[in-house]
Each structure stands twice: as C-alpha cells, then as structure tokens.
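Objective 1b: paired records.
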Amino acid sequence: MTLSELLQYLDENMDGVFLDGDPAATLDKAREGSHRNPIAAEVLVALMDGAGADRPDTTLERAEAVKAIGPVRLKYMADDAPVEGFRLVEKTIVTIDAAYNDEALSSRG
C-alpha cells in the first residue's frame, strides 16, 4: 500500500482528520507545521521519518507504519498527555490494521 492510499483510507475512516488537501499537500503541511490537526500532523511526520515515507507514492508495509508511529503513541500514553491525542493515535493504529486487512482481503477476490 502506498502512503497516499493509506492517508486516503485513514481520512475516509477517521472523520476526515488526516487529509488537508491532496496527499502531497497534506504531507507538506504536516512537515511545515501548518496542518489543520496538529496531532494528525505528528502522526504523519512520524510516518515520514520513521518509515522513510516522504512521498505519497512511497510503499509502506503494515509493520513499518505501526512501528513508525510508536514514539507518538508513547507520548500520548503519558499520564499528562491530552486524552484526545491518545484516542486519535489509538484509533489510527486500529485503522491502519483495518486498511491492510481490507487490502489483503480484496487481493483474494
């Protein structure tokens, strides 16, 4: 799955919090700090940095994606972290799993 496909899946299944324009513009805004959702931007930057996925057409495996956002997850698991951050990151991980499950099922026909 490409980063673009994953972003579109996340956006469609998470109430539109990820895309801020097209996938390329979204990644640029996340990197620049101008994305409309700062927590989603943290997740996107973690995906880009942790998985080496800096372009929409970069291919990402499930394990790479989940591992890349691990540090953001730990940040929002802290007792003093905002609960909305924890919820968004946890839902993101579940939705990433669903994206790859759907991709695997659709390839089987």
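Objective 1b, second protein:
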Amino acid sequence: MKMQWLPIKIYTFVICCIQLSTAANILAVFPIASPSHHIWNTPLVVTLAQRGHNVTVVGPEALKTQVPNLTDIVITGLYEAILEEFNYEEIIDVSPLFTMGMFFDYSSHQCLSIQKHDAWKQLMNYPPDTKFDLLITESIGAECLLGGIQRFGDPPIVSINAFNVPFWMLETSGTPNMLSHIPHYVFTGTDHMTFWQRVTNAMYYIYSYYHYYYNYLPAMDKAAREYYGPNVPSYSEVQQRISISMANYHPVLDYPFAITPNLIPVAGMQIKDPKPLPQDLQNFLDGAKEGVIFFSLGTNLRSEKLTPEKRKALMEAFAELPQKVLWKFEADSLPGQPKNVKIGKWLPQSDILAHPNVKLFISHCGLLSTHEAIYRGIPILGIPFFADQPINIRKLVNNGAAIQLDFKDLTKESLLKTLYLLLNDPSYRENMKKLSAKFRDNPETPLERAVFWTEYVLRHKNVPHLQSAAKDLNFAQYFLLDVLAFLLAIPVLFIILLFCVCCRRKSTHARKQKLN
C-alpha cells in the first residue's frame, strides 16, 4: 500500500521543488498616493505572490488581499494629506500648463515624503545580503528612491503606469513619440489635428519635456545624492535597467501609435468577473424597474465637497427621474436626499456597472472608470475636472458613446436635458456595446498578459532583445538632425565654394583688363 503512494509523493515533491526553484524575490515600489493607482497596481503583485513569488510591496495604501509570501510596507499619511488639498472650483480653473507643472510638483513631493518616512527606512535597513530578482515600480514618483535599490543586487526593472502612456515612458522604452498625431494628455485635440492644433500640441510637449528634464529630474537626482550619498547612480543610469514598460493603454479608447516590443498594453488590468454585491445594493438594483443611474466622481474627487448650489441642482434633477440613482457620497448623510436616491461611502464600481439594470454612468471620466464603463458597455455622462479626464470623455463623445457636461454648466435643467438624451437615444448604448466588444476581444486578460511579461523578464534577465536602439540615441541622432545638417551643409558649401570661385575669376578678369 505504501509503495502505491510512493510515485504520487515523488511527483508532489518534484512539483514543490520546481515551484521553489522558480520563485523569485520581487520588490514593488508604488509611490503615487492615489486609490485609483492602488486599485490598478494591486492585482499584479497579488497574482505574482499567489503564483509562489516572494513579493515585498512599498506603497501608500495597505493591501486588502493577504497572501503568506506577500510583505506589505505601508507609507502612511501620504494620501490623507493630498486629499485635503482638492478643491473642485480651483482644479477646473487651472490652465493645462499649470496642470502639468502641478503634476510634476506632486510627484516630487511624494518621492521626497517617502524618503523621510520610517517605512522606507525599514526597507533600507534590510540585511546587506538581501537580494531582489526584480523591481516593479510606477513610471514616475520614485526617481529619488530607486538609486538606493542597487544595494539589493541591481535588479532589472518593470515600469508600470496607470494613466495611459506618458512621454517619459515612451522615452525609456524607445517608442517614437509622434507629436503630429498623438495629442498631449492635457490637450483635447484628436489624432487628426489642424495646423494650429499641432502647434498647440507641440508647445504642450515642449513645456512638458523642459519641465521634466530640466526641473523635475535634476531635483530628483539631487535628493537621491543627499539621501544616499554622492556616488548614487542618477535616474538616467537607473533607466537603463528598465526591461519592459506596461501601460494602461488600449487602442479602442486611445489613439493608436507604433509601439516597441518592450512596451506592453495592459488596459483594464483591474477588471475582474463581477463579484456578488452586498445584499442592500443587490436589492436596490434588482428593484429598479426603470433602471439605475450610477453616479461616482472616483476616488480622489469627493461628492461631499460639492458646493451647495451644485449639490442642490443634482438632487432636484434626480428627484424628477423615474430611474433610481446610486450615488457615491462620502458623508454619512445627504440632507434633502430624494426618495429614489441611495448613497454609499464606498461602492464596488465595476461590480455595480455589471448589473443589468444599470442604464447610465455619471462619471468624472478618470481612466479606470472609463475603462470599466467601456468593458461593461454602459454609456457615460462625463463631467471632467482635470488631467486626462477631458480627453477621455472627448474620445467617448467622438465614438458616440457619451455626452460631456462641463461642471461650470451643471444645472438642474442642463443635467435633465443630458440625462434624457442618453437614456432615450439607444445609439449611445449600442455604440458603447460595440466598444465593449472590441475592448474584450483579446486572447488573454490584461492581468494574464502583465503576469506573463513580468515572469518573462525573470526567465530571460533584462531582455536586451526587446530593447530598441533608439533608447541610446540623443535628440539630434534620433531625429537625424546631424545627418540633415550634414546633407544641407554639402550644397551650402558647394554654393559658397562656387561663389568664391566666381568671385576669384571675376577679380582675376578685372585685373587683366586693368593691366591691358
């Protein structure tokens, strides 16, 4: 009897050995204090831990999923400090240029705050022989931290980004950034721009490049030297260890462009099969015979901070609807709450959007919310505020799947008019369903793709065969400016030489005539 079980025991032992031999030590550094970034980043590290890897995560929010081989080092206090500074009116009034500068200032503040935090010091105090096989980090906000990671064995880097593909990720992956047809994330132009739109787009990019390379990165390098010492590698040196980049990009929403093999699109990585809803929500949605309108301004913008005038306009409009309204509202109560409105401080957004009775989504059009609405096929009434939100809603409007209503124009009358159009014109839902079918049509899920390529880097180490030589070229070489200068110099020199010869001949001829 014992002999019958021997092959099974041997097989089990071999499988365990294989798993142990392939398990890697992975460090993940997520500096951006934003719940939406946390929601997008978390599935990757949790899945890697569930697959047997030892994962250490450093970030501003605690992980909700507990895995035995997952270590969570929480940078407390970052998100709360940022959240208190949000002001609806001020955010809407700022110019795109100010938005860009504000984002770099915010990322710099995050990085410097983490440097000083006890949790980061806890990581830096790990034993000297600690080695990590891989570093996963967000593409911005960690530049002043990463130089110190060399003490853990200079691991290859997987760079990830929760908001589309920023220009610095294109630079580090060697992917061409075509300003002629790819609008800047704060510019609401399309991929078919007029001359003056291309001028505007180019100016936005030039400003961003200047701010990033001449203000932001030098400040990050200075902070790294002050913290780790003068011999710490600069971020430009750290960038050379980026093996692959993964971005929240999908051509269904985002304008298509040529990408290199080391830039992996993983849009919708946070989206999973819908889970059972809490019973009160389930009953509310099931009982909505006329359907449900879901209203959420995301994780950074809070409905409780809306001005009394805007809140009144929303409630008066909702009260006249035959549909029920589910509103993400962060306070315990909503004075004057209509009977057809239910509020909740936290609502499982993706699971709610999957309910068949949800007819419409009123959203700020953050990228995660936009992707989830597309995936579930729910048309959007978009009220954008800042950053990429205006361009996200503009793309959906161009696809006939949404209507934009600016916050300044939000009144009871404008809201009711827009809601009526979206709810009674079936084309919006049909167009969103078409986008949904395209978004879903992939050979694997975005999370499966992200896990595969992460483990691909572990298996093949640094993956130099995926790297474009464009990463090693300077600006003049990349755009062939040196070659163009050379080619232009040849005819110019020829003309100058010809002019000199002609002048010399003319001078010689004049002298001869004078002598004669």
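Residues 481-515 form the longest helix (35 residues). Residues 479-515 form one domain.
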